[in-house]
Amino acid sequence: MPQKLKVGLIGAGGIMRAAHLNPGWLAVPDCELVAVCDNNREAAAKMAEDFKIPNIFADHRELLKIEEIDVVDIATPNVFHAPITIEALRAGKHVLCEKPLSTTTASIRAIEEAAAAAGRLVMTGQNQRYTPSAVAIKNFLHERDLGHVYHSRIHAVRRNLMPSSPSMIDSALSGGGPCMDIGVHALDLGLWLMNFPRPVRVTGRLMVNFARDHDLPGGWGEWDRERVTTEDFVSAFIHFESGATMVLEACWLQHQQESQDFSARLFGRKGSVEWPGGEYASAVNRVLVDSRIVPATGLQKPHTEEILAFVAAIREGRPSPVPPDESRRVIEILEAVYESDRLNREVKLPLATAEEADETPGIRAGSP
Ligand SMILES: NC(=O)c1ccc[n+]([C@@H]2O[C@H](COP(=O)([O-])OP(=O)(O)OC[C@H]3O[C@@H](n4cnc5c(N)ncnc54)[C@H](O)[C@@H]3O)[C@@H](O)[C@H]2O)c1
Do 154 and 78 fall within a single domain? Predict the structure, then answer.
């Protein structure tokens, strides 16, 4: 590993600028931004100008030809994550990819195989794991046993924070709505805190309640209602091998007073914890015990911590901090939610392939 880490950026859009370069990569010692690619060449050129990046591309394959690049950071629309990640691995690069790593388990398996063949690391950008509350709760759970966690409640629900970008609301680009956009954050967090139990059965229901025809005002501005082909609400019930259950809710739009509720609550026989508030509840000798887990201090912004963790893993030859197999467990559940809605019944995991089920996959458009 050369002293200086050379980085290529793919997808010069909102999150790359707002988080991966704020300060993100700029906070990594001995790191050099070598190239930026966006299929909108003007966006790449603007980012190159603002961050003094010498090479500009409109095709990621050209960027991947630069031999000296050690790492690529991908923040394109979701459906391009897997193909670009696999090509980057084959070109010998380590890959940091925004969430969701991909929208199907099959494509994540292909990423895992490509990473193993190339001997390179892949990390999914699950930045919520690097928030001060999540870090503190994970550390707390290393020391405190909740007993058998029999249930969990995962929320990623917003009042009127509907994305306006076509890359989010057009399922051909996003692979799904709030499930893939924000559900993936809260579900990853919950499963990570639970050490990734094995899901066995899933019932899911997708809806479009507001996004196409309601006059709920968008907190982030207007969106093209004609273009919405994803769900705007999802609820799901998940069974794990251990006998535990989980309730998942994710939405972009609904009547609620809070602007957003991103949370995970784990209920164990010995105690419960809640993210992000850090509530811990238990009982000892018939006395109720309540406490609050104090958020970790001294951390940089979550995306910056995420990038620093990835770079440390590369430099020190350690495993990926958010490896693809963990993302596969998250997507396995979300994929099953869509499949359950499509079939209008509970589905078993692992999912039957289309041939096994003798059914062709439907479009993830959300049920009316
Ligand atoms: N972790 C987070 O907090 C967070 C927040 C927002 C978005 N995201 C994720 O980041 C990704 C990008 O989201 P965004 O909000 O920045 O979107 P965006 O639309 O602002 O930016 C995406 C950029 O990718 C470019 N692009 C599209 N196809 C490309 C291709 N094949 N090759 C190169 N460039 C291509 C677009 O021109 C655009 O500039 C999504 O996967 C999204 O889920 C993560």
Answer: no
